[in-house]
Amino acid sequence: MGIGKIIIKRAVNAIILVFIVMTINFFLFRLVPGNPVLMIISPDMTMEARQTLFIKYGLDKPLHIQYINYIREVFKGNLGISFVYNRPVFDLVFERVPATILLLLSSYIITVILSVALGLVAAWKRGSKFDISLIVSGLSLHSMPTFWMGGLLLMYFSVNLGLFPITGLSTPWLVHENVYSYIKDIAYHLFLPMMALGIGNIGGMFFITRNSLLDIFSEDYITTAKSLGLKDKTILFHNVLRNAMLPLTTIILIRLGFIIGGAVTTEMVFTWPGVGLLIYWSVLAQDYPVLQGAFLIITITAVFANFIAEIVYGYLDPRIRYE
Amino acid sequence: MVLLDVQNLRTYFNTRAGKVKAVDDVSFQLEKGDALGLAGESGCGKTTTALTIMRLLPFNAEVLSGRVLLNDVDLITIDDKGLREEIRMKQMSMVFQGAMNALNPVFRVGEQIKQGILIHEDITKEAAWERVRELFDLVGINPDRAREYPHEFSGGMKQRVIIAMALSCNPNLVIADEPVTALDVIVQAQILELIRNLRENLGLSMIMITHDLSVIADTCNKTAIMYAGKIVEMADSIAIFKQPEHPYTQGLIANFPSIIGEKKKFIPIFGSPPNLISPPNGCRFHPRCPYVKEVCRKEEPEVVEVERGHFVACHLMK
Amino acid sequence: MQKNKIKGYARSIRKFWEQYKESKLGIIGLFTLLFFILVSTFPEVLAPYPVGVLQGDRKNLLQPPSSKYLLGTDELGRDILSILIHGGRISLLIGLFATLIIAFIGTFIGVSAGYFGGKTEELLMRLTDVFLVIPGLPLMIVMASLLGANFFNMILVIGITGWTGTARVLRAQVLSLKEMPFIESTRAIGASDARIIVWHILPNVLPLIVAQAVLRIGGSILSAATLSFLGLGDSTKISWGMTLSYAFGIGSIFNDYYWYIIPPGVCITLIVLSFTFIGYALDGIVNPRIRER
What we know:
The complex is a heterotrimer. Chain A is mainly α.
């Protein structure tokens, strides 16, 4: 079956990518101008502490040995110790992963729903005032810095109107009677950052959707469908959507990897306790172990997301499936 | 009796470069049982005429004037519902170029035909599928292949599928747009023979659009020659081939190579097809006409019936 | 001979302008861009007040807009309008230079991969895949924080992370160009690869490179603004992103210093928008689908 071969090929690809990414990660952090030692050893430590760590982390050994050690440690789950928190980087990052995933996925759902729906309407009513206003809005949204839009939303809806909480994931001092109220609290806090990130990411996807649909509308088989006497609505929802499913799913899956970056600024503006915020703080504090560890984890996640996307695409394309 | 009456049809396209006058005052009649060949070079307006009759024009096209009477119903003004439910497939259908993208790649071919049948016939899904199988038989495809996808068919087979689709609701009129152009000669011959047989057995009226005169010679008893959005000559096919009157037709026929008979040199029609956004004044063919006169540059020629049933639009005919 | 060539170019430029004029968005974008370029070229002349860190009006910190200070003042008492006038230059310069790097790398990799094929193509495409998969902004953040935050590093970092789209598009174009008969015949005459690439391939992909560049400038400016906002920009130069970072930093959101937080964002949006509109208009010309009137 074609699909089995695809999975294996893509999996091998993904594993190679992960190794490349780890290698890049290793060498990238050697770029620190000055002593690569600064990566592991905080300038605040005493001379003795520095010496101990120096030997402990094998920084006196040749580069390729360090590299092998690094890979081995990563596989053991050891990403170093944070300067600032004095805790394992791995723990720090993984504590925050759920919050980021929640934000990313929920905002992406918003992005997809809005982009596809609006793209569909714009393509269907091509050339109308509605289409043109959607295009201009889309272009403007695409040109706006996401963090700024988030800040404006926060300023208007939270501070001025008091509709939503200002920071964080949940109200810290609130005692919850049951899971349901806890979820409500989180949702209440999630709404604004989700909308900010969700709407901010619409830009590109709206246009790609609209263009894909316009391409499909101009295909010969749509003319055939019309000649059969099908209603316009039927053609749209039955035929066109089926044809659009493949390119749309591809677009949706592939762009999933691109939104990870946007999380950093949004988390920072809304003080959302995710990996993005952690990265921001680690940059400010020059907490290099955390920066390196967090970066590695989100990059590997991106490789994984890409891998899933390719598998799903391979499954959906009838030409590949029926080989 | 007249099945289709096209009167003064004008279809223009709105483009960035200007208004393209693709079909400019086209009129003709089709008798029941006739097969009319609509011939001309690329861009002369023959496909646009067909699409206008079928109301399948793209969004930037505009029908400025004219009537298309199918059994006294004006297809241009009929409401959408009437067009879809009464006219399409049941009275008139179109055979597209099957080798191209006329079949939707994500649906099984039988499904696509079944869709059309179910809109017009009040029968069960199973009965509709049975009819699909019968149609496949009729056009010479193994009925079991109805469950396959378009990419599993060759060009010629796809064309048969399209023909089956066009016949699925027993129309009176079939418009075929370059049905054999993209096929190789042997498959071409097979498809043309199929079309001929079907026409005879089912008593179909047909409009065949093509740039290939030999296809018309093979299938049509009447021929209309189009140039730059207008019909320049229309007559029985035999008359067109034996006695072409319009200089353009003469140019086309003269270059028709024959296997038998003496060798001839090609005499190309010099010049190139006109710009349809700003076509030449007077007779549109005048820049390329070897017999051009002063009047040809100024006035558009009127249609003259030089013999019974033989119409020519040329100043020389007076 | 030369004169004819120049006449030919002049004619095609005029034809291009005829088409470009049709796009309302394109014209708006062009004029907006010209406005910003103009303002950014002579900020000292146009700005009503000085913008040095020590030159603020101590008596008027964080004042809302008034007749004296049209857009209010910041936490150092400086006139925000003046700051904005100075801030455009950095955005334009970074956008320009970063995009030059993107165009250069993207063209080099895309054309090489497309033209040479085989192992070269595979290697280069894998390289592209790596850069595609790694999330852009985090990579920029990491590199900027490691290399140090200054003007040149920002350009470098944005350039190195942004070329993948261009490379892909160019490779596709070269692949289809390669098949064309005129390339085959040129090779048959015995032209070397270098000659073919420089004299035949590059001139044909030039419009695409330009279109890509225009598309990417907007993104580069946004990336630069984001990096400045996160504190990874050049602190010695005034930029809109940096202004926003100060605005956020002193709690404009919570204290409703709307005059501090809204205008810089509007400026960034407008300048990126101008490039976006221009790109949209260009796309309409380079990619002619059946466009409505």
